[in-house]
Protein backbone atom coordinates (compact mmCIF):
# COMPACT_ATOMS: atom_id res chain seq x y z
CA UNK A 1 0.00 0.00 0.00
CA UNK A 2 2.63 2.46 1.09
CA UNK A 3 4.65 1.60 -1.98
CA UNK A 4 1.82 2.53 -4.30
CA UNK A 5 1.36 5.73 -2.34
CA UNK A 6 5.02 6.55 -2.82
CA UNK A 7 4.80 6.16 -6.59
CA UNK A 8 1.60 8.15 -6.62
CA UNK A 9 3.17 11.02 -4.69
CA UNK A 10 6.21 11.11 -6.93
CA UNK A 11 4.18 11.12 -10.08
CA UNK A 12 1.62 13.68 -8.98
CA UNK A 13 4.33 16.01 -7.76
CA UNK A 14 5.49 16.11 -11.39
CA UNK A 15 2.38 17.72 -12.65
CA UNK A 16 1.95 20.62 -10.30
CA UNK A 17 2.57 23.42 -12.75
CA UNK A 18 5.32 25.74 -11.67
CA UNK A 19 4.67 29.44 -11.95
CA UNK A 20 8.26 30.45 -11.68
CA UNK A 21 8.73 30.80 -15.42
CA UNK A 22 12.03 32.55 -15.75
CA UNK A 23 12.30 35.60 -17.87
CA UNK A 24 14.31 34.86 -20.98
CA UNK A 25 16.36 37.67 -22.31
CA UNK A 26 15.51 38.10 -25.98
CA UNK A 27 19.07 37.81 -27.27
CA UNK A 28 19.48 34.39 -25.66
CA UNK A 29 18.50 32.52 -28.74
CA UNK A 30 19.03 28.82 -29.21
CA UNK A 31 20.50 27.46 -32.41
CA UNK A 32 21.03 23.90 -31.32
CA UNK A 33 18.24 21.89 -29.74
CA UNK A 34 18.62 18.47 -28.24
CA UNK A 35 15.76 16.15 -27.44
CA UNK A 36 16.13 12.97 -25.44
CA UNK A 37 13.28 10.63 -26.27
CA UNK A 38 11.65 8.08 -23.98
CA UNK A 39 14.10 5.51 -25.38
CA UNK A 40 16.98 7.77 -24.47
CA UNK A 41 15.56 8.43 -21.02
CA UNK A 42 15.17 4.69 -20.43
CA UNK A 43 18.76 4.16 -21.48
CA UNK A 44 19.97 6.88 -19.11
CA UNK A 45 17.78 5.60 -16.31
CA UNK A 46 19.16 2.07 -16.64
CA UNK A 47 22.67 3.45 -16.72
CA UNK A 48 22.02 5.59 -13.66
CA UNK A 49 20.46 2.74 -11.72
CA UNK A 50 23.35 0.41 -12.52
CA UNK A 51 25.88 3.06 -11.62
CA UNK A 52 23.99 4.09 -8.51
CA UNK A 53 23.84 0.52 -7.25
CA UNK A 54 27.50 -0.14 -7.82
CA UNK A 55 28.36 3.10 -6.06
CA UNK A 56 26.12 2.32 -3.09
CA UNK A 57 27.32 -1.17 -2.28
CA UNK A 58 28.79 -2.32 -0.03
CA UNK A 59 26.85 0.00 2.24
CA UNK A 60 27.30 -0.19 5.99
CA UNK A 61 24.38 0.60 8.24
CA UNK A 62 24.67 1.73 11.85
CA UNK A 63 24.47 -0.97 14.49
CA UNK A 64 21.16 -1.63 16.19
CA UNK A 65 20.74 -2.60 19.85
CA UNK A 66 17.72 -3.46 21.84
CA UNK A 67 16.66 -5.17 25.03
CA UNK A 68 13.82 -7.57 24.39
CA UNK A 69 11.63 -9.47 26.75
CA UNK A 70 11.66 -13.14 25.78
CA UNK A 71 9.25 -15.56 27.49
CA UNK A 72 10.97 -17.75 30.14
CA UNK A 73 14.27 -16.00 29.66
CA UNK A 74 13.44 -12.48 30.73
CA UNK A 75 15.25 -9.45 29.36
CA UNK A 76 17.68 -10.24 26.61
CA UNK A 77 20.06 -7.65 25.30
CA UNK A 78 20.53 -8.04 21.54
CA UNK A 79 22.84 -6.28 19.16
CA UNK A 80 23.17 -6.31 15.39
CA UNK A 81 26.45 -5.02 14.10
CA UNK A 82 28.44 -4.86 10.92
CA UNK A 83 25.22 -4.60 8.96
CA UNK A 84 26.21 -4.47 5.30
CA UNK A 85 24.12 -4.25 2.17
CA UNK A 86 26.14 -6.17 -0.38
CA UNK A 87 23.71 -6.68 -3.20
CA UNK A 88 20.79 -4.80 -4.70
CA UNK A 89 18.71 -6.08 -7.58
CA UNK A 90 16.10 -4.08 -9.41
CA UNK A 91 13.32 -6.04 -11.04
CA UNK A 92 11.64 -3.22 -12.92
CA UNK A 93 11.96 0.51 -13.18
CA UNK A 94 10.66 3.41 -15.16
CA UNK A 95 11.36 7.06 -15.85
CA UNK A 96 8.70 9.63 -16.53
CA UNK A 97 9.10 13.32 -17.24
CA UNK A 98 6.34 15.64 -16.05
CA UNK A 99 5.71 19.38 -15.97
CA UNK A 100 8.08 20.08 -13.13
CA UNK A 101 10.55 17.25 -13.05
CA UNK A 102 11.51 13.74 -13.88
CA UNK A 103 10.42 10.76 -11.79
CA UNK A 104 12.52 7.63 -11.63
CA UNK A 105 11.00 4.68 -9.84
CA UNK A 106 12.53 1.29 -9.21
CA UNK A 107 10.09 -1.28 -7.95
CA UNK A 108 10.35 -4.88 -6.87
CA UNK A 109 13.90 -4.30 -5.78
CA UNK A 110 15.58 -6.73 -3.44
CA UNK A 111 18.60 -6.23 -1.32
CA UNK A 112 20.79 -8.64 0.58
CA UNK A 113 22.46 -7.81 3.83
CA UNK A 114 24.93 -9.56 6.01
CA UNK A 115 25.29 -8.87 9.73
CA UNK A 116 26.61 -10.20 12.98
CA UNK A 117 24.30 -10.78 15.91
CA UNK A 118 25.08 -10.95 19.56
CA UNK A 119 22.94 -11.44 22.64
CA UNK A 120 23.37 -11.73 26.36
CA UNK A 121 21.12 -12.25 29.33
CA UNK A 122 21.34 -13.27 32.89
CA UNK A 123 18.89 -15.41 34.75
CA UNK A 124 18.40 -16.03 38.47
CA UNK A 125 18.66 -19.74 37.70
CA UNK A 126 22.32 -19.54 36.84
CA UNK A 127 25.07 -17.46 38.39
CA UNK A 128 26.66 -16.60 35.01
CA UNK A 129 25.69 -14.43 32.10
CA UNK A 130 24.68 -16.24 28.97
CA UNK A 131 25.88 -14.83 25.66
CA UNK A 132 26.15 -16.03 22.09
CA UNK A 133 27.09 -14.57 18.73
CA UNK A 134 26.86 -15.49 15.10
CA UNK A 135 26.13 -14.21 11.65
CA UNK A 136 22.92 -13.73 9.80
CA UNK A 137 21.88 -12.95 6.29
CA UNK A 138 18.89 -10.76 5.64
CA UNK A 139 16.81 -10.45 2.50
CA UNK A 140 14.83 -7.29 1.94
CA UNK A 141 12.11 -7.78 -0.61
CA UNK A 142 9.49 -5.76 -2.41
CA UNK A 143 11.58 -2.66 -2.00
CA UNK A 144 10.43 0.43 -3.83
CA UNK A 145 12.73 3.36 -4.49
CA UNK A 146 11.66 6.55 -6.18
CA UNK A 147 12.95 10.01 -6.78
CA UNK A 148 11.80 13.13 -8.52
CA UNK A 149 14.45 15.29 -10.10
CA UNK A 150 14.07 18.95 -10.94
CA UNK A 151 15.97 20.30 -13.93
CA UNK A 152 16.48 23.96 -14.66
CA UNK A 153 18.79 26.34 -16.38
CA UNK A 154 20.90 28.33 -13.98
CA UNK A 155 23.16 30.90 -15.53
CA UNK A 156 23.70 28.81 -18.63
CA UNK A 157 24.32 25.48 -16.94
CA UNK A 158 21.95 22.72 -15.95
CA UNK A 159 20.91 22.60 -12.34
CA UNK A 160 19.70 19.23 -11.10
CA UNK A 161 17.86 19.06 -7.81
CA UNK A 162 16.28 16.32 -5.79
CA UNK A 163 12.68 17.35 -5.28
CA UNK A 164 11.49 14.15 -3.68
CA UNK A 165 13.05 10.90 -2.68
CA UNK A 166 11.69 7.86 -0.96
CA UNK A 167 12.49 4.27 -0.26
CA UNK A 168 10.04 1.77 1.08
CA UNK A 169 10.74 -1.75 2.30
CA UNK A 170 7.93 -4.28 2.23
CA UNK A 171 9.30 -7.54 3.57
CA UNK A 172 12.28 -8.78 5.44
CA UNK A 173 13.43 -12.31 5.96
CA UNK A 174 16.30 -13.25 8.22
CA UNK A 175 18.42 -16.36 8.08
CA UNK A 176 20.52 -17.07 11.12
CA UNK A 177 23.68 -19.10 11.27
CA UNK A 178 23.48 -20.82 14.65
CA UNK A 179 21.72 -19.38 17.65
CA UNK A 180 19.05 -20.76 19.90
CA UNK A 181 15.59 -21.65 18.64
CA UNK A 182 13.87 -18.71 20.34
CA UNK A 183 16.26 -16.27 18.73
CA UNK A 184 14.74 -16.14 15.29
CA UNK A 185 11.31 -14.87 16.33
CA UNK A 186 12.92 -12.58 18.88
CA UNK A 187 15.04 -10.98 16.20
CA UNK A 188 12.14 -10.62 13.78
CA UNK A 189 9.96 -9.01 16.43
CA UNK A 190 12.67 -6.75 17.68
CA UNK A 191 14.42 -5.68 14.54
CA UNK A 192 12.24 -6.07 11.50
CA UNK A 193 11.02 -2.48 11.56
CA UNK A 194 14.40 -1.10 12.50
CA UNK A 195 16.30 -2.95 9.80
CA UNK A 196 13.72 -1.81 7.26
CA UNK A 197 14.00 1.78 8.40
CA UNK A 198 17.80 1.64 8.43
CA UNK A 199 17.79 0.36 4.84
CA UNK A 200 15.29 3.01 3.78
CA UNK A 201 17.30 5.81 5.42
CA UNK A 202 20.63 4.66 4.12
CA UNK A 203 19.43 4.33 0.54
CA UNK A 204 17.59 7.63 0.60
CA UNK A 205 20.66 9.37 1.98
CA UNK A 206 22.94 7.77 -0.60
CA UNK A 207 20.64 8.75 -3.44
CA UNK A 208 20.63 12.34 -2.19
CA UNK A 209 24.42 12.33 -2.23
CA UNK A 210 24.46 10.78 -5.70
CA UNK A 211 22.20 13.48 -7.07
CA UNK A 212 24.40 16.17 -5.55
CA UNK A 213 27.38 14.65 -7.34
CA UNK A 214 25.47 14.40 -10.59
CA UNK A 215 24.51 18.05 -10.17
CA UNK A 216 28.10 19.16 -9.65
CA UNK A 217 29.04 17.11 -12.69
CA UNK A 218 26.45 18.96 -14.77
CA UNK A 219 27.44 22.33 -13.31
CA UNK A 220 31.03 21.62 -14.23
CA UNK A 221 30.22 20.90 -17.87
CA UNK A 222 32.06 23.46 -19.99
CA UNK A 223 30.10 26.29 -21.58
CA UNK A 224 32.34 26.11 -24.61
CA UNK A 225 33.62 23.10 -26.49
CA UNK A 226 36.86 23.68 -28.39
CA UNK A 227 36.64 22.98 -32.12
CA UNK A 228 40.21 23.84 -33.07
CA UNK A 229 42.88 26.32 -32.02
CA UNK A 230 40.77 29.21 -33.13
CA UNK A 231 37.14 28.39 -32.59
CA UNK A 232 34.87 26.85 -30.03
CA UNK A 233 31.22 26.00 -29.94
CA UNK A 234 29.15 27.91 -27.40
CA UNK A 235 27.21 25.23 -25.54
CA UNK A 236 25.62 27.54 -22.98
CA UNK A 237 22.10 26.47 -22.08
CA UNK A 238 19.73 29.27 -22.98
CA UNK A 239 16.39 28.11 -21.68
CA UNK A 240 14.98 25.81 -19.07
CA UNK A 241 14.77 22.23 -20.26
CA UNK A 242 11.36 21.51 -21.72
CA UNK A 243 9.70 18.45 -20.30
CA UNK A 244 6.93 16.67 -22.13
CA UNK A 245 5.35 13.42 -21.07
CA UNK A 246 7.84 11.39 -23.05
CA UNK A 247 10.89 13.51 -23.72
CA UNK A 248 13.20 16.19 -22.41
CA UNK A 249 14.42 19.00 -24.64
CA UNK A 250 17.44 21.23 -24.17
CA UNK A 251 18.19 24.47 -25.97
CA UNK A 252 21.73 25.65 -26.26
CA UNK A 253 23.32 28.65 -27.94
CA UNK A 254 25.25 26.58 -30.49
CA UNK A 255 27.09 29.45 -32.20
CA UNK A 256 30.78 29.41 -32.98
CA UNK A 257 32.87 31.79 -30.93
CA UNK A 258 36.45 32.83 -31.21
CA UNK A 259 38.92 31.24 -28.79
CA UNK A 260 41.57 33.85 -29.28
CA UNK A 261 40.63 37.33 -28.38
CA UNK A 262 40.24 38.31 -31.99
CA UNK A 263 37.60 40.94 -32.41
CA UNK A 264 34.86 39.30 -34.35
CA UNK A 265 31.99 41.59 -35.19
CA UNK A 266 28.87 40.45 -33.35
CA UNK A 267 26.60 38.90 -35.89
CA UNK A 268 22.90 38.74 -35.39
CA UNK A 269 21.39 35.39 -36.16
CA UNK A 270 17.80 34.50 -36.10
CA UNK A 271 16.71 31.02 -35.34
CA UNK A 272 13.60 29.60 -36.87
CA UNK A 273 12.13 28.32 -33.62
CA UNK A 274 14.19 25.25 -32.86
CA UNK A 275 12.43 21.96 -33.12
CA UNK A 276 13.71 18.45 -33.34
CA UNK A 277 12.00 15.95 -35.48
CA UNK A 278 13.18 12.41 -35.95
CA UNK A 279 11.24 10.22 -38.33
CA UNK A 280 12.36 7.16 -36.46
CA UNK A 281 10.86 7.72 -33.02
CA UNK A 282 12.82 4.83 -31.56
CA UNK A 283 16.04 6.83 -31.66
CA UNK A 284 17.30 7.91 -28.26
CA UNK A 285 18.40 11.36 -29.22
CA UNK A 286 17.77 14.12 -31.71
CA UNK A 287 20.05 17.11 -32.23
CA UNK A 288 18.89 19.94 -34.49
CA UNK A 289 21.35 22.47 -35.77
CA UNK A 290 20.05 25.68 -37.27
CA UNK A 291 21.85 26.93 -40.37
CA UNK A 292 22.98 29.87 -38.20
CA UNK A 293 25.43 27.46 -36.53
CA UNK A 294 27.18 26.92 -39.86
CA UNK A 295 26.98 30.56 -40.81
CA UNK A 296 28.50 31.59 -37.48
CA UNK A 297 31.39 29.21 -38.20
CA UNK A 298 31.75 30.67 -41.66
CA UNK A 299 31.73 34.24 -40.30
CA UNK A 300 34.24 33.40 -37.60
CA UNK A 301 36.82 31.86 -39.92
CA UNK A 302 36.25 34.62 -42.44
CA UNK A 303 36.70 37.38 -39.88
CA UNK A 304 39.79 35.71 -38.49
CA UNK A 305 41.25 35.92 -42.01
CA UNK A 306 41.89 32.22 -42.32
CA UNK A 307 40.08 32.11 -45.60
CA UNK A 308 42.77 33.31 -47.94
CA UNK A 309 45.75 31.59 -49.27
CA UNK A 310 48.48 31.76 -51.85
CA UNK A 311 48.41 28.91 -54.30
CA UNK A 312 51.88 28.08 -55.55
CA UNK A 313 51.51 24.34 -56.08
CA UNK A 314 48.83 22.82 -58.22
CA UNK A 315 48.40 19.55 -60.06
CA UNK A 316 48.76 21.35 -63.39
CA UNK A 317 51.95 23.10 -62.35
CA UNK A 318 52.57 24.47 -65.86
CA UNK A 319 49.68 26.87 -65.15
CA UNK A 320 51.91 28.64 -62.65
CA UNK A 321 54.09 29.98 -65.38
CA UNK A 322 53.08 32.62 -67.86
CA UNK A 323 54.05 30.17 -70.61
CA UNK A 324 51.12 28.02 -69.57
CA UNK A 325 48.80 30.94 -70.29
CA UNK A 326 50.35 31.79 -73.64
CA UNK A 327 47.26 31.01 -75.64
CA UNK A 328 44.71 32.00 -73.02
CA UNK A 329 46.10 35.42 -72.09
CA UNK A 330 48.66 36.15 -74.82
CA UNK A 331 49.35 39.68 -73.54
CA UNK A 332 50.38 38.24 -70.13
CA UNK A 333 52.97 36.05 -71.77
CA UNK A 334 54.17 38.87 -73.96
CA UNK A 335 54.61 41.22 -70.99
CA UNK A 336 56.16 38.68 -68.59
CA UNK A 337 57.54 35.84 -70.71
CA UNK A 338 58.32 32.61 -68.84
CA UNK A 339 57.82 34.13 -65.41
CA UNK A 340 56.54 32.07 -62.52
CA UNK A 341 53.15 32.95 -61.12
CA UNK A 342 51.06 32.37 -58.08
CA UNK A 343 47.40 32.72 -57.37
CA UNK A 344 46.15 34.67 -54.38
CA UNK A 345 42.73 33.37 -53.51
CA UNK A 346 40.70 35.11 -50.84
CA UNK A 347 37.06 35.25 -49.92
CA UNK A 348 35.27 38.53 -50.26
CA UNK A 349 32.56 37.69 -47.74
CA UNK A 350 31.77 34.79 -45.41
CA UNK A 351 30.44 31.77 -47.32
CA UNK A 352 26.68 31.46 -47.00
CA UNK A 353 25.13 28.18 -45.99
CA UNK A 354 21.50 27.44 -46.69
CA UNK A 355 19.91 24.22 -45.61
CA UNK A 356 17.08 22.96 -47.74
CA UNK A 357 14.93 19.88 -47.88
CA UNK A 358 17.50 17.10 -48.51
CA UNK A 359 20.18 19.50 -49.66
CA UNK A 360 22.72 22.00 -48.41
CA UNK A 361 23.59 25.00 -50.54
CA UNK A 362 26.84 26.83 -50.05
CA UNK A 363 27.69 30.05 -51.83
CA UNK A 364 31.25 31.29 -51.79
CA UNK A 365 32.24 34.72 -53.05
CA UNK A 366 35.94 34.77 -53.79
CA UNK A 367 38.56 36.86 -55.48
CA UNK A 368 41.40 35.39 -57.43
CA UNK A 369 44.37 37.63 -57.96
CA UNK A 370 46.86 36.50 -60.56
CA UNK A 371 50.38 37.40 -59.44
CA UNK A 372 53.47 37.33 -61.57
CA UNK A 373 56.72 36.68 -59.74
CA UNK A 374 59.59 38.59 -61.22
CA UNK A 375 62.91 38.90 -59.46
CA UNK A 376 61.59 38.91 -55.85
CA UNK A 377 58.69 41.06 -56.90
CA UNK A 378 55.09 39.97 -56.66
CA UNK A 379 53.20 41.81 -59.36
CA UNK A 380 49.41 41.51 -59.25
CA UNK A 381 48.24 41.59 -62.83
CA UNK A 382 44.54 40.83 -62.75
CA UNK A 383 41.74 40.04 -60.38
CA UNK A 384 38.79 37.80 -61.12
CA UNK A 385 35.67 37.70 -58.96
CA UNK A 386 34.24 34.25 -58.51
CA UNK A 387 30.80 33.23 -57.31
CA UNK A 388 31.03 29.57 -56.49
CA UNK A 389 27.87 27.56 -55.89
CA UNK A 390 28.37 24.30 -54.12
CA UNK A 391 26.28 21.52 -52.76
CA UNK A 392 27.24 20.31 -49.32
CA UNK A 393 26.77 17.10 -47.47
CA UNK A 394 27.42 16.20 -43.86
CA UNK A 395 28.29 13.01 -42.13
CA UNK A 396 28.84 11.79 -38.62
CA UNK A 397 31.98 10.12 -37.46
CA UNK A 398 32.08 9.43 -33.75
CA UNK A 399 30.53 12.51 -32.22
CA UNK A 400 31.86 14.79 -34.94
CA UNK A 401 29.78 16.35 -37.68
CA UNK A 402 31.97 16.74 -40.73
CA UNK A 403 31.13 18.08 -44.15
CA UNK A 404 32.17 18.16 -47.74
CA UNK A 405 31.44 20.35 -50.70
CA UNK A 406 30.82 19.61 -54.38
CA UNK A 407 30.88 22.16 -57.16
CA UNK A 408 27.51 22.84 -58.68
CA UNK A 409 28.22 25.92 -60.72
CA UNK A 410 30.26 29.07 -60.77
CA UNK A 411 30.30 32.41 -62.47
CA UNK A 412 33.17 34.81 -62.94
CA UNK A 413 33.82 38.39 -63.87
CA UNK A 414 36.89 40.51 -64.29
CA UNK A 415 37.33 42.89 -61.40
CA UNK A 416 40.42 44.67 -62.59
CA UNK A 417 43.35 44.06 -64.88
CA UNK A 418 46.70 45.64 -65.63
CA UNK A 419 47.07 43.63 -68.80
CA UNK A 420 44.05 44.76 -70.72
CA UNK A 421 40.87 42.89 -71.25
CA UNK A 422 40.80 39.13 -70.72
CA UNK A 423 38.74 36.69 -72.71
CA UNK A 424 36.91 35.09 -69.83
CA UNK A 425 35.43 32.26 -71.89
CA UNK A 426 38.97 31.05 -72.51
CA UNK A 427 39.91 31.36 -68.86
CA UNK A 428 36.75 29.71 -67.57
CA UNK A 429 37.86 26.06 -68.10
CA UNK A 430 41.15 26.79 -66.36
CA UNK A 431 39.34 28.31 -63.39
CA UNK A 432 36.94 25.36 -63.30
CA UNK A 433 39.94 23.01 -63.08
CA UNK A 434 41.49 25.15 -60.36
CA UNK A 435 38.31 25.08 -58.32
CA UNK A 436 37.98 21.33 -58.72
CA UNK A 437 41.59 20.42 -58.13
CA UNK A 438 42.77 23.09 -55.71
CA UNK A 439 40.02 25.00 -54.01
CA UNK A 440 37.55 22.21 -53.22
CA UNK A 441 40.10 19.64 -52.02
CA UNK A 442 41.58 22.31 -49.75
CA UNK A 443 38.18 23.31 -48.40
CA UNK A 444 37.16 19.68 -47.96
CA UNK A 445 40.22 18.84 -45.88
CA UNK A 446 39.05 21.47 -43.42
CA UNK A 447 35.37 20.68 -43.64
CA UNK A 448 36.05 16.99 -43.06
CA UNK A 449 37.53 17.79 -39.66
CA UNK A 450 34.13 19.10 -38.70
CA UNK A 451 33.18 20.00 -35.18
CA UNK A 452 32.07 18.05 -32.13
CA UNK A 453 28.37 17.77 -31.44
CA UNK A 454 27.46 18.78 -27.91
CA UNK A 455 27.39 15.37 -26.25
CA UNK A 456 28.47 14.66 -22.71
CA UNK A 457 31.87 13.01 -22.55
CA UNK A 458 31.62 9.25 -22.29
CA UNK A 459 28.64 8.93 -24.60
CA UNK A 460 29.09 8.10 -28.29
CA UNK A 461 26.57 8.32 -31.08
CA UNK A 462 25.58 5.03 -32.64
CA UNK A 463 23.56 4.40 -35.81
CA UNK A 464 23.21 8.10 -36.47
CA UNK A 465 20.98 9.39 -39.26
CA UNK A 466 21.03 12.85 -40.72
CA UNK A 467 17.96 14.67 -41.92
CA UNK A 468 18.16 17.95 -43.83
CA UNK A 469 15.02 20.00 -43.64
CA UNK A 470 14.32 23.67 -44.23
CA UNK A 471 17.06 25.65 -42.38
CA UNK A 472 17.99 22.71 -40.14
CA UNK A 473 20.15 19.66 -39.97
CA UNK A 474 18.91 17.08 -37.53
CA UNK A 475 20.98 14.19 -36.28
CA UNK A 476 18.86 11.34 -34.95
CA UNK A 477 20.82 8.74 -33.13
CA UNK A 478 21.22 6.19 -30.42
CA UNK A 479 24.03 6.55 -27.96
CA UNK A 480 26.28 4.16 -26.17
CA UNK A 481 28.16 4.70 -22.99
CA UNK A 482 31.87 4.13 -23.26
CA UNK A 483 33.04 3.08 -19.87
CA UNK A 484 35.64 5.80 -19.58
CA UNK A 485 36.43 8.57 -17.19
CA UNK A 486 34.02 11.46 -17.21
CA UNK A 487 30.71 10.52 -15.74
CA UNK A 488 32.09 7.44 -14.05
CA UNK A 489 34.88 9.10 -12.22
CA UNK A 490 33.25 12.34 -11.27
CA UNK A 491 29.93 10.94 -10.23
CA UNK A 492 30.30 7.56 -8.79
CA UNK A 493 33.38 7.57 -6.63
C1 LIG B 1 27.38 31.99 -25.39
O1 LIG B 1 25.97 32.09 -25.50
C2 LIG B 1 25.35 32.76 -24.41
C3 LIG B 1 23.85 32.68 -24.63
O2 LIG B 1 23.48 33.16 -25.88
C4 LIG B 1 25.85 34.19 -24.35
O3 LIG B 1 25.26 34.85 -23.25
C5 LIG B 1 27.36 34.17 -24.17
O4 LIG B 1 27.87 35.47 -24.19
C6 LIG B 1 28.00 33.36 -25.31
N1 LIG B 1 29.43 33.22 -25.03
C7 LIG B 1 30.36 33.67 -25.87
C8 LIG B 1 31.77 33.43 -25.46
O5 LIG B 1 30.06 34.24 -26.91
C1 LIG C 1 31.82 -7.38 8.52
O1 LIG C 1 31.20 -8.00 7.41
C2 LIG C 1 32.03 -8.15 6.27
C3 LIG C 1 31.20 -8.71 5.16
O2 LIG C 1 30.40 -9.74 5.56
C4 LIG C 1 33.21 -9.07 6.64
O3 LIG C 1 34.06 -9.18 5.51
C5 LIG C 1 33.94 -8.45 7.79
O4 LIG C 1 34.96 -9.36 8.22
C6 LIG C 1 33.01 -8.22 8.98
N1 LIG C 1 33.71 -7.50 10.04
C7 LIG C 1 33.62 -7.83 11.30
C8 LIG C 1 34.38 -7.01 12.28
O5 LIG C 1 32.99 -8.82 11.67
C1 LIG D 1 19.77 -12.09 -2.46
O1 LIG D 1 18.41 -12.27 -2.12
C2 LIG D 1 17.61 -12.89 -3.11
C3 LIG D 1 16.21 -13.03 -2.59
O2 LIG D 1 15.78 -11.86 -2.02
C4 LIG D 1 18.18 -14.26 -3.44
O3 LIG D 1 17.42 -14.84 -4.49
C5 LIG D 1 19.63 -14.12 -3.87
O4 LIG D 1 20.19 -15.42 -4.08
C6 LIG D 1 20.42 -13.43 -2.80
N1 LIG D 1 21.78 -13.21 -3.27
C7 LIG D 1 22.83 -13.56 -2.59
C8 LIG D 1 24.17 -13.29 -3.22
O5 LIG D 1 22.74 -14.06 -1.47
C1 LIG E 1 30.84 -14.19 11.04
O1 LIG E 1 31.44 -13.82 9.81
C2 LIG E 1 32.74 -13.27 9.95
C3 LIG E 1 33.22 -12.77 8.60
O2 LIG E 1 32.72 -13.55 7.56
C4 LIG E 1 33.67 -14.35 10.51
O3 LIG E 1 34.96 -13.79 10.67
C5 LIG E 1 33.13 -14.82 11.85
O4 LIG E 1 33.90 -15.88 12.33
C6 LIG E 1 31.69 -15.26 11.76
N1 LIG E 1 31.20 -15.47 13.12
C7 LIG E 1 30.62 -16.62 13.51
C8 LIG E 1 30.22 -16.69 14.92
O5 LIG E 1 30.42 -17.52 12.71
C1 LIG F 1 24.25 33.95 -11.97
O1 LIG F 1 25.24 34.87 -12.41
C2 LIG F 1 25.13 36.15 -11.83
C3 LIG F 1 26.16 37.07 -12.47
O2 LIG F 1 27.26 36.35 -12.96
C4 LIG F 1 25.34 36.04 -10.33
O3 LIG F 1 25.19 37.31 -9.72
C5 LIG F 1 24.30 35.08 -9.76
O4 LIG F 1 24.54 34.88 -8.38
C6 LIG F 1 24.36 33.75 -10.46
N1 LIG F 1 23.27 32.95 -10.00
C7 LIG F 1 23.45 31.71 -9.55
C8 LIG F 1 22.24 31.03 -9.04
O5 LIG F 1 24.54 31.17 -9.58
C1 LIG G 1 44.28 29.07 -36.27
O1 LIG G 1 44.88 30.31 -36.31
C2 LIG G 1 46.25 30.30 -36.68
C3 LIG G 1 46.74 31.73 -36.69
O2 LIG G 1 46.37 32.37 -35.52
C4 LIG G 1 46.43 29.64 -38.04
O3 LIG G 1 47.80 29.55 -38.33
C5 LIG G 1 45.81 28.26 -38.01
O4 LIG G 1 45.88 27.69 -39.30
C6 LIG G 1 44.38 28.35 -37.59
N1 LIG G 1 43.82 27.03 -37.50
C7 LIG G 1 42.70 26.68 -38.11
C8 LIG G 1 42.28 25.27 -37.91
O5 LIG G 1 42.03 27.45 -38.77
C1 LIG H 1 1.65 12.46 -24.09
O1 LIG H 1 0.89 13.61 -24.38
C2 LIG H 1 0.23 13.57 -25.63
C3 LIG H 1 -0.50 14.89 -25.81
O2 LIG H 1 0.29 15.94 -25.41
C4 LIG H 1 -0.75 12.40 -25.66
O3 LIG H 1 -1.35 12.34 -26.94
C5 LIG H 1 -0.01 11.11 -25.37
O4 LIG H 1 -0.90 10.04 -25.29
C6 LIG H 1 0.77 11.22 -24.07
N1 LIG H 1 1.56 10.03 -23.89
C7 LIG H 1 1.66 9.39 -22.72
C8 LIG H 1 2.53 8.20 -22.72
O5 LIG H 1 1.08 9.76 -21.71
C1 LIG I 1 46.21 38.61 -51.45
O1 LIG I 1 45.14 39.46 -51.80
C2 LIG I 1 44.62 40.25 -50.75
C3 LIG I 1 43.49 41.09 -51.28
O2 LIG I 1 42.55 40.35 -51.90
C4 LIG I 1 45.69 41.11 -50.16
O3 LIG I 1 45.18 41.80 -49.05
C5 LIG I 1 46.87 40.27 -49.73
O4 LIG I 1 47.93 41.10 -49.27
C6 LIG I 1 47.35 39.42 -50.88
N1 LIG I 1 48.40 38.54 -50.38
C7 LIG I 1 49.59 38.46 -50.95
C8 LIG I 1 50.58 37.56 -50.27
O5 LIG I 1 49.85 39.02 -51.98
Automatic annotation (TrEMBL):
Annotated Pfam families: LBP_BPI_CETP (PF01273), LBP_BPI_CETP_C (PF02886)
Stored SUPFAM superfamilies: Bactericidal permeability-increasing protein, BPI (SSF55394)
Residue span, Lipid-binding serum glycoprotein C-terminal domain: 279-477
Domain Lipid-binding serum glycoprotein N-terminal stretches: 36-261
Stretch forming the signal peptide: 1-20
Alphabetical keyword list: Glycoprotein, Signal
Keyword Signal among record annotations: yes
Keyword Signal listed: yes
Record protein name field: Lipid-binding serum glycoprotein C-terminal domain-containing protein
Species of the source: Hevea brasiliensis (Para rubber tree)
